[in-house]
Structures are given as structure tokens and as C-alpha cells.
Amino acid sequence: MIKIRIDIVSDVVCPWCIIGVKRLEKALLELKQEAIEAELYWHPFELNPAMKPEGQNLREHIAEKYGSSPEASQSARETLTQLGHEVGFTFQFSDNMRIYNTRKAHQLLMWAQQEQRQYQLEMVLFEAYFTQGQDVSDPQVLLNAAQTAGIDRDTAQRVLDDDSWANAVASTEQQWLEAGINAVPAFIINKKHLISGAQQPDSLVAALKEVANQQG
């Protein structure tokens, strides 16, 4: 069995991140048949680190940030919903959907790696935000997500209250920015090969096979 390392830089309010991860899962399932498997490590990237506590209407935010018209925004939502359906993920966009700051979510996610619960927590948070429309900056939402992911609630509360984890998130994000990562999702294979964006599974299979063959 050839093992490769994949570092995933993402944000839980990024729709292309969950699509990219689901496509990666499909690729890895195919590669298992060829004795190639991956260890995944997740890293923080805040799309909106300066977002105010109450968040902002998502459609207004997209219009301000990218200059998108209401028609373009609606078209993008329809496209994402269809792509989500193709990979087995449900997007439930609504007119009152809001975008939130994700610093606290990333604190929990960074800590969860040492508990080997990072993947579970990522999936719960993606679903909480995109499928259930929850506020992923709300500590109670985060504690519920942690509990669903198999993490002790009291321990999760301590992580959320610990400024050192907030500082660790900020420091890690800065390192990725300095490394040239300014958009997500970003997949770094064996710490040296970058795959940007939500690539199709067949493209991922080809790229990962090439890396594995070089390694093997």
C-alpha cells in the first residue's frame, strides 16, 4: 500500500470546499483499488476574517465582494445545488442565508486533529451551515457540532475559550498566505504538489497516481 499525505486548506462556509472534498473522496475510493491511500490533514482558511459578529446576508455579501448581480448569484446557487447533488451533498440556499466569521470553528477543527475527529467535525459543520442554515460562529452551534462529531462538549468549550487556539489559527492562516495560498479549496500533496480548486475526480485520480508512482 502506497500512502500519500494530503493537506486540505479550506473554510466551512466555502461551497466549493465541500464539493472539492467530496470529489476527492470519490477519487480516493477509486485509488484504493490500486493500493494507494491518503492521510488527510485539514488547515484553516477564513474567507472573511473581518466579518462582524452578526454576519451578513449572503447575497448582499457576494454582491459587495464580487460584484455579482442577483441573477448571477441565483445561477451560481443553482449550479452549486446541482453539483452538490452529484457528489451526495445537500445545499439548502435561502434568501435570508447569512455568511459568518469562522475563527471559532477553526479553533475546534485544529484541536480536533489530535483527537482524530477532524474529518467528522468538518462534515458536521459543512452540513450545519449549508444544509441546516445554522450560524457556525455561534458557540452553541459549535458545541452541538462537536458533540455530534464525538467530541466531549466540556472539552470543546475549553478549546473555544482558549485564546491560544485562536492565535494558532491566525498563525497557521498567515503561513498559508505566505506560501501563496490565497483561495480555497487547496490540496497540497506530500507537502509539495498543489492542486487548486474543486477538481473533477478523474483529474484528481490522475494527479494522485502520478505522485504515488513517483513516491513508489
Automatic annotation (TrEMBL):
<dbReference type="InterPro" id="IPR001853">
    <property type="entry name" value="DSBA-like_thioredoxin_dom"/>
</dbReference>
<dbReference type="Pfam" id="PF01323">
    <property type="entry name" value="DSBA"/>
</dbReference>
<dbReference type="InterPro" id="IPR036249">
    <property type="entry name" value="Thioredoxin-like_sf"/>
</dbReference>
<protein>
    <submittedName>
        <fullName>DsbA family oxidoreductase</fullName>
    </submittedName>
</protein>
<feature type="domain" description="DSBA-like thioredoxin">
    <location>
        <begin position="6"/>
        <end position="209"/>
    </location>
</feature>
